[in-house]
Write a structure and sequence with these properties.
With 491 residues, the protein is of the alpha/beta class. The longest helix is centred in the middle third of the chain and has 19 residues.
């Protein structure tokens, strides 16, 4: 990548960094970026605008030589992800962002992409799906090439990207957006908080593969001149060590609620949290440790950001982003009018969400939970229907019902299953504990760890009511008493 500076991350921003009135547009990146502008950092090593522009131009030239249109981006290094993202845009490609790199999940998503861009950290996983995609797989930085493409301004509404979120009908749901929608959201984020964050660096505990991390960790900092960390912070010790008055933390409740036993060091300039409800105690812990409440962002892959708040009490309502409007349907679900949502996804200008709310006035509301079968576990959005879909795909099972269990300490997934003839044979051969472990092992090819059922019950058939609907109250009662599977580590 060429010679790197040896400044600290807190010194990374250049005096020419863009302020609230001079935020770059995605349309002109990287052409309008100054050579000295800091883009990313890894410890004390800073990668600047000149190198970034060079890397994007080299990869763009390579991509223009391929006929494949849909390119999946699978990266752990946020800098190489950003190079790939911008090069794909300038190369006229459609961007596909899988949510995770499990081989089974990528294989299931392979109909959505023709080729892969990745870094070395994902090579072993990508190798398992190469035979499925049968398209080119380019590793960065090895496949940058030597030729430089001429970069011109983008037309963001013509650049599409596909993200994935758990669907209510089973398999992951593809969400198609265009770059113009993200550009509008970046402009709103800069309007809200750009002046506060001018001169800051960004560190993160969340992945750039999802829309929250993509916006808050990568694209907004890139436009606003805020250098971002190439690697994730993965534990409370790293979060505490990274704190500084000119550093912004992009995080989630999964990590913030683990800070209660830490000791105060230094403050952050700003803390963002999204992906699920932040417990008020975690917000209070942040105030005690860093002197500020996190700014929570409520939204989804489909909608982008909807509202925000700083939770100074458990009753703090959500405030809509300016220019948004909401109303409630007959079931109390939020209907949203937003420039961050494509008009084609709306009916009469309104997008119907699955989030129930109490509307306080035209700008404020309180959330009342979800009305579909999506649950949030450690800030991961888990579709119970998707869990059932993958359970039923196993030849040991004929039917399955997944449900959330809350034991007062954590939320997890449980499943009631019906065995096939093969399943009964394997149960007799392995015994219950080992059979449950084998089920979980098979599901790891498709589901994230928090989405894999921790407990199972075996029935001859799933109980139904007179309307043919599953009796979930009865299913929950099957897990009410302690049984032998709890004695085997809640298999």
């Amino acid at each position: 990548m060429g010679k790197k500076d040896t400044l600290t991350p807190q010194q990374a921003t250049h005096p020419d960094s863009h302020n609230d009135l001079a935020c770059l547009s995605l349309v002109d990146i990287p052409m309008a970026m100054t050579d000295h502008a800091a883009v990313a950092f890894d410890g004390a090593q800073i990668t600047r605008g000149a190198q970034f522009s060079l890397d994007v131009a080299r990869l763009t030239s390579v991509l223009r030589g391929f006929d494949e249109l849909r390119w999946a981006l699978c990266f752990s290094d946020s800098y190489w992800f950003t190079v790939a993202f911008m090069a794909a845009c300038h190369g006229g490609k459609q961007l596909v962002l899988p949510g995770n790199y499990q081989a089974g999940a990528l294989t299931a998503l392979s109909p959505h992409f023709d080729a892969l861009l990745t870094d070395k950290s994902a090579t072993s996983v990508i190798a398992e799906v190469t035979s499925i995609t049968r398209g080119p797989v380019l590793h960065l930085p090895d496949n940058l090439g030597d030729k430089l493409a001429r970069l011109t301004s983008l037309t963001p509404d013509n650049i599409t990207l596909t993200l994935f979120t758990s669907g209510s009908s089973g398999p992951q749901k593809a969400i198609n957006k265009h770059l113009g929608l993200l550009q509008r959201e970046i402009q709103e984020l800069q309007h809200q908080w750009g002046a506060k964050l001018n001169g800051c660096s960004v560190v993160s505990t969340v992945s750039h593969q999802h829309i929250y991390g993509l916006l808050f960790r990568i694209l907004w900092p890139l436009c606003a001149g805020m250098p971002f960390a190439r690697d994730d912070l993965t534990n409370p010790m790293q979060v505490m060590a990274a704190a500084a008055p000119d550093v912004c933390l992009v995080s989630s409740p999964a990590l913030l609620k683990r800070l209660g036993n830490e000791s105060a060091t230094r403050t952050y300039c700003k803390i963002f949290s999204s992906g699920g409800p932040l417990p008020h105690q975690a917000a209070a812990d942040c105030l005690s440790l860093f002197g500020l409440f996190p700014t929570e962002i409520f939204g989804s892959t489909e909608t982008g950001g909807i509202a925000f708040r700083q939770q100074d009490s458990e009753l703090t309502p959500w405030r809509l982003f300016p220019e948004h409007a909401i109303k409630l349907d007959a079931d109390g679900c939020i209907m949203l009018r937003s420039a961050f949502v494509h008009p084609n996804d709306c009916r009469d200008g309104w997008y119907l969400t699955s989030d129930c709310a109490e509307q306080l006035d035209e700008h404020h509301f309180c959330l009342q939970g979800r009305c579909d079968r999506i649950v949030k576990i450690e800030e991961k959005r888990i579709s119970l229907a998707e869990v059932e879909h993958h359970l039923c795909s196993l030849n040991w099972l004929t039917d399955a019902a997944a449900l959330p269990l809350d034991d007062g300490q954590r939320l997890s997934v449980a499943a009631v299953i019906c065995l096939s003839k093969n399943g009964k044979t394997e149960l007799n051969r392995l015994g219950k504990a080992q059979f449950n472990l084998a089920l979980r092992s098979q599901l790891r090819h498709y589901l994230e760890p928090v989405g894999i059922p921790r407990r199972f019950r075996i029935l001859a058939q799933i109980p139904m009511n007179s309307q043919g609907k599953r009796q979930y109250q009865t299913l929950h009662q099957l897990f009410a008493a302690a049984t032998d599977d709890q004695q085997h580590g809640k298999q």
